[in-house]
Amino acid sequence: MTTPAAHAPILFFDSGLGGLTVLGPTRALLPTAPIVYAADYAGLPYGEKSDEELAARVPALLGRLVERYQPRLAVIACNTASTIALAHVRAALDLPIVGTVPAIKPAAEMTKSGVIGVLGTEATVRQPYVDDLSAKFAGRKTVLRHGSPALVAAAENKLNGRPVDAAAAERAIAGLRSQPGGEAMDVIVLACTHFPLLSAELQAAAGPDVRLIDGSAGIARRIAHLTEGQPWPAEAAPGIAVFTRSDANPPPPLAALAPYGIGRIETI
Fold it and tell me: Distance between CA 96 and CA 73 in Å, rounded?
């Protein structure tokens, strides 16, 4: 594969702002990496769409973004899109693609009680991929699942500076705890990149004896490994955030994205 130019960006893709939780640790490892962050606000929320719709939509949209921004690598920083469309994207695009999968393996190694919760979108928690991960890495554990679209909306509201439904986190945790074995749950996998944005609210609802885990640090390490030895700019330049045009969901204020190194907003 041809060595990319130093200015070739890493493309992060999500339905909304959840992928910023992957961008953050990647910035820490690769501080001068050029960044394009793409959010499909016209398609938000992904968790309520059919598998067939996402399997068609995600590769087509990523194809447009790759053609426009010429990235060295693309990150599907969305559990729902990854569990449904990752194979389709890899078949369609000729560049490295990093997906996002629920952190069930480290959760299984971490649990003392043997009961793990998986909190994601409704689309993610129903996927056979989650069955496979549970069977492979947590075969002797109890794996509880709950889908919470309200948490996606709450996370978007939080980053946009809008009021957050404080009860959304409590309802999500109750959705796990109310299942058989739920009272013994001591680890919760945040299987949506939006959910770490609400880690304080979720931790308060779960209590101090429950650990929250997500895969963002591991994804950042994977990105660093795949780009090892490639040239980077000497200094970091402001990143670009690009949003698909939506009357219902206008882009957030730039101030909300600036802490992640974003300096410009575009719409397509």
Answer: 5
pTM: 0.94
In sequence order, the β-bridge partners of residue 267 are 243
- Are residues 61 and 89 in contact, defined by beta-carbon separation less than 8 angstroms? no
C-alpha 75/C-alpha 82 separation (Å) is 9
- 76, 78, 101, 198: which is the annotated catalytic residue? 78
Residue 192 annotated in active site:
yes
* 10-27: average pLDDT: 97
Residue 159 has pLDDT above 70, yes or no: yes
214 is catalytic: no
Range 88-114 average pLDDT: 96
Q: What are the distances in angstroms from CA 106 to CA 53, 148, 218, 219?
A: 31, 22, 10, 13
Residues 194-213, mean pLDDT to the nearest whole number: 97
The answer to whether residues 164 and 201 touch, using CB atoms and an 8 Å cutoff, is yes
- 45: cis peptide before it, omega within 30°? yes
Taking residue 58's Cβ as centre, other Cβ atoms within 10 Å add up to 27
Choosing from 85, 185, 192, 197, the catalytic residue is 192
